[in-house]
Fold:
Amino acid sequence: MIKSYKIRLLPNQKQEQLLWKHVNTSRFIWNWGLAYQEDLYKNNQKHLSGYSLKKVLTQLKQSNNYVWLNEVSAQTLNTTILDLDDAYKRFFKKINGKPKFKKKSKVTPKFPARCDCIYFINGLVNIEKIGKVKYQTNYNLPQGRKVCKFSNPRIKYENDKWILSFGMECNNQTQKLTDNSMGIDLGIKELAVVSFDNKQINFKNINKTKRAKKLNKKLKHLQRKVSRKYETNNKNKRYEKKWFKSNNILKVEKQIKKIYNKLSNIRKNYIHQTTRQLINLLPYRIVMEDLN
Structure:
């Protein structure tokens, strides 16, 4: 069984520069691969598979103009090409839309890492081409090399924090289910009312707690504040563009983004704790209404 984990990275200044180099190079390779495939399509040539495109990438890295591609992990670039190939496969099967170019200001900074080089030792995690980085977590992770197999490690920059997510092989923890059925009624006043083993369990609406209300109140205040700044700039015609983002506007919008992230984390954490509590009761069947 593979279990997913998320931990926070605490890189120093030099390591952070290397992380950003991997982010930017990964985005460049995605855009390069997408442009290459589109040129083939325009010239009525056959679409290349991910492994065939990797061979073209190897030739690109050997040219004098792209020597800087060798400064980052080769596995990062190869996995990015395979991600693009997977996106095309889903597009051809009509599961997703056509792959798009990644614009620096509109995408989440992230990149794949090499899985067989990751290991944890003395509060540090080893990442290829970046080195041993401090991390912060409440999980008891296996210490030492080759003590566990990791899969699909990804690093992203979210809300001024570096996050490492990965899968880890664990023992299959199958448990014997009870003979009781569980009924769940979702609501608005309360998150859910659960009936199990002739007992009723109520789960509160997390949006009505004191902390969530305080954050929502602060969020509304900042939204009005940034709206007034836009109105003042447009009224006085200070900038050529109508929705020009001045430094003050960017500062307030960054505060808004942090509050959105806090509220999102509070809700995700509460939903995770609620579902975990329900699954721990080990019902053999879960029944929920399906309202139109």
In short: The helical segments are 13-42, 50-62, 74-92, 210-236, 247-279. The CA atoms of residues 135 and 145 lie 17 Å apart.
